[in-house]
Amino acid sequence: MQKPTVPKGTRDFGPEQMRKRLFIFDTIRQTFQRFGFQPLETPSMENLTTLTGKYGDEGDQLLFKILNSGDFAGGLTEADLQAGSKKITPKIAEKGLRYDLTVPFARYVVMNRNALTMPFKRYQMQPVWRADRPQKGRYREFYQCDADVVGTDSLLCEAEIVLMIHEVFRNLGVLDFTLKINNRKTLAGIAEVIGEPGQEGLLSVAIDKLDKIGMEKVLDELRERGFSEESIRKLDPLFSFGELDRLQLLNQLKTWLTTSETAQQGIAELEETLQFVDQYGLTDSRIEIDPTLARGLSYYTGAIFEVKANGVSIGSVSGGGRYDNLTGTFGMPGLSGVGISFGVDRIYDVMEELNLFPAGAGQGTRLLLVPFDSAARAVALPLLSQLRASGITAEVYPDLAKVKKMLDYANAKAIPYVVLIGSEEVQTGLLSLKNMVTGEQTKTTASELIQLLRSTSF
RNA sequence: GUGAUUGUAGCUCAGUCGGUUAGAGCGCCGGAUUGUGGUUCCGGAGGUCGCGGGUUCGAGCCCCGUCUUUCACCCCA
Predict the structure, then answer these.
(1) Which residues are listed for L-histidine binding in this entry (predicted)?
(2) How long is the CA A11 to C1' B47 vector, in angstroms?
(3) Is the pLDDT score of A362 beyond 90?
(4) Interval A160-219: pLDDT, tens
(5) Strand B closer than 7 Å to the CB of A438?
(6) Which residues of A9-18 are buried (b: 16+ CB within 10 A; e: fewer)?
(7) Is A393 helix (H, G, I), strand (E, B) or coil?
(8) I need a surface site. Which of A184, A281, A402, A418 has the fewest CB within 10 A?
(9) Nucleotide nearest to A437 in CA–C1' terms
């Protein structure tokens, strides 16, 4: 027998998982809306022309392509087949699954440029797909929750992103996290100062691995990529910022990168952003300026953010930054934007590993009505409506089954309360409320019952 | 894309040197108990050993392929 399976790197989410996931989605959505972002959804598939070339060569490889409908191979010639799969792909697939939410958003902005009020703030919570090999904290289908502002280069937006990150993780109960922040202009400045102007891309990928592989190996990689010994020597100060506080760090950066105008601008942006954050009154900030933070995506041009949960070995749970020209490739240059993306699946893994889901997050039905016969059921149904109208999640066992079966059902669904209704309850009008955790059973009226369930969270 | 790794009942896992009819715990179903679950006791169902091929008198076990799981690299949320 062929047992059914789901494709590699994809998962089903059962009821308990889904409730926890919805807790994460709801928490993030609340914050996005509170900050004035408006909802947007885009199609799962985009034209490949929209997607390719936006994520670098590596990214293009990771795109899921969708085979054309109909006789997709009909127009292929012998020469095409000889040319190999890379040449054939555009002839047989003109659509692909979205790789992130930022590029479809940029496409949307360009298509609706005349209708949108600028600055335009949108949030979007949808799955994205990447064709890489699954491993810990990495899936082929996963959800991102993005919030972006386009049409302004105000650093207030960067500051608000910092605030939203703090609010989201605090509301989730993930208190021990680090928000790393840096600026691509500073990185560009470093490349200038060490005598490798324009090479900040290569510099970034290598430096990004610092805390993973250590300084020596980073330097080896730079040598491999053609950086001169002199440049590498000039990079020294970057590794000596260890224990400095924010002010000292910024001053040292300014001194070191004094000859680069770009770097000075990056540092000034960083300072202004942090100043705004202070003015907003953020307390107990988890911000850490990290001059080595690089991030892979090539379209970032200003601030870059990355959030890691401490105490777990799962990659970043959130990341983002400013991009000056994302819409340029779609024929709309000069539109600046900044955004943040929360990775729901990784946040879930972190919260599960650290046991951070609140008891209410996995909670479904709170009360099961157990009528013993049809006369009892006639009492139960109006009561059920009354309970639901009071906002209490309640259900009745649909069959007139044995009491054991119904109580087993309550246990299986982890329903904490049961109301038993038999001939005695029908006659007296009093209900038997059973606490399934303690086993204790009391007589109660309908209104007392509602009051009790409203006043306790579970 | 590179290199490892995993797969036996719904779940977690045993299964000796290749040898008769593949086992356990938990879970599930029924009963003890027609107004009381989570404890106990009794009974029961449930397997193409991931899939395909090969070696062998004989394969869950050995070989090849393939899919899947997990992990590292690359890259990333």
Answers:
(1) 100-102, 130, 144, 148, 295, 299-300
(2) 25
(3) no
(4) 999 999 999 999 999 999 999 999 999 889 888 888 887 777 888 888 787 777 788 888
(5) yes
(6) beeeeeeeee
(7) coil
(8) A281
(9) B38
Structural tokens at position A384: 């059920």
Q: What six digits make up the tokens of A424?
A: 């005695």
CA–C1' A2–B19 (A): 29
Q: Which token pair is A448?
A: 């007392």
User: Does at least one atom of strand B sit less than 7 Å from the CB of A211?
Assistant: no
Average pLDDT estimate for A95-118: 93
pLDDT at res. A201: 78
Domains of chain A: 15-63+99-353 (3.30.930.10), 367-455 (3.40.50.800)
Cα(A149)–Cα(A159) distance, rounded to whole angstroms? 12
Identify nearest nucleotide to residue A404 by CA to C1′ distance.
Answer: B37
Closest CA to A298 of A204, A388, A223: A204
Residue A6 CA and nucleotide B13 C1' are separated, in Å, by 24
Rounded to whole angstroms, how far apart are CA atoms A384 and A394? Answer: 7
pTM (two decimals) = 0.90
Alpha-carbon distance A173 to A288, whole Å?
A: 20
Q: What is the DSSP letter of A239?
A: G
What pLDDT is recorded for position A457?
Answer: 63
Could you read off the pLDDT of A8-62 as tens digits, one per residue?
Answer: 889 888 888 888 899 999 999 999 999 999 999 999 999 999 998 888 777 888 9
CA atoms within 13 Å, Cβ hemisphere of A224? 9
Burial of A229 (C-beta count, 10 Å sphere; 0-12/13-18/19+): exposed
Q: Is A208 a known ligand-binding residue? A: no
What is the reported pLDDT for A1? 42
A34 CA vs B11 C1’ separation (Å): 43
Average pLDDT score over residue span A106-131:
94
Identify whether A371 is preceded by a cis peptide bond (ω within 30 of 0).
no
Choose the weakest-confidence range: A111-115, A243-247, A289-293, A296-300.
A296-300
Tell the burial category of A125 from Cβ atoms under 10 Å away from its Cβ (0-12, 13-18, 19+). Answer: buried
The owner of tokens 């993030």 is: A28
State whether the beta carbon of A296 lies below 7 angstroms from any atom of strand B: yes
Is nucleic acid strand B under 7 Å from A5's C-beta? yes
Q: Is the peptide bond before A119 cis (omega within 30 degrees of 0)?
A: yes
Local structure of residue A64 (DSSP, 8 states): P
Question: For chain A, first and last CA: distance in Å?
Answer: 44
